[in-house]
Design brief:
alpha+beta; four-stranded mixed beta sheet; 2 helices
């Protein structure tokens, strides 16, 4: 069996925080002086959190086409362009079968109103490409390019993918503008309730302290 991407899926296949799970089989012998990469091209509706990716530093390093990823904005407030993520897998040749996990996040879509009461939009997500980049006498090792996607040489050694590895669909969560008044009212009530609870606890604590001070003063007088 030649080296290939044997499976890819989103876990879970719905919701706002799926993980991209890619399984790769590497046939022996493993290419010398080479680095194995996974390249994700994400639609504007999806993004990755660079701070979260740092938690996977033992498994891979990464580079982004736009390092300044907006983490909070909805999809209609960011540029309508894909985000490229390249994962540089550490010690790929140490295992025959790899499983690479990349956490993804879904942006919120535009609020629905009475005129746009369509179902939640569905976005297709492409499977990542797996490929080798290798050092040569004329080119430095691939890790030298880890900080820049633009300068990375054209991928060579592209791994084939199993026929089961296909684009997947995921629903984009959207709110209903008619629910906005309930959300705002609920927020105000929650804040007022929290303020009242804190005030009540402060009053109780003050009463206890005042009672303790009166008791100490009584003991001194006696």
């Amino acid at each position: 069996m030649s080296s290939q991407v044997i499976s890819w899926h989103l876990d879970p296949p719905y919701g706002a925080h799926p993980k991209s799970i890619t399984r790769i089989h590497l046939a022996a012998p493993c290419p010398a002086d080479c680095t194995l990469h996974l390249q994700h091209i994400l639609p504007p509706d999806l993004f990755v959190d660079p701070y979260e990716l740092e938690l996977y530093a033992d498994a891979y390093t990464y580079s982004l086409s736009n390092p300044r990823v907006e983490l909070e904005k909805p999809v209609f407030a960011v540029p309508n362009e894909p985000l490229t993520l390249r994962v540089n897998i550490r010690d790929a040749c140490a295992r025959e079968t790899l499983e690479v996990e990349v956490p993804l996040h879904v942006r919120y879509g535009r609020l629905r109103d009475e005129q746009t009461r369509a179902d939640e939009p569905v976005v297709q997500v492409r499977p990542p490409d797996a490929f080798w980049t290798c050092a040569s006498h004329d080119a430095p090792a691939a890790d030298a390019y880890a900080g820049s996607l633009v300068d990375l040489p054209h991928p060579s050694g592209l791994l084939e993918a199993s026929p089961d590895v296909r684009p997947l669909s995921i629903r984009i969560p959207v709110g209903d503008i008619r629910h906005l008044v309930f959300v705002e009212s609920g927020t105000v009530l929650a804040v007022l309730g929290a303020f009242a609870w804190v005030g009540w606890r402060v009053i109780r604590a003050a009463r206890r302290l005042a009672g303790a001070q009166r008791a100490r003063g009584k003991d001194k007088n006696e």
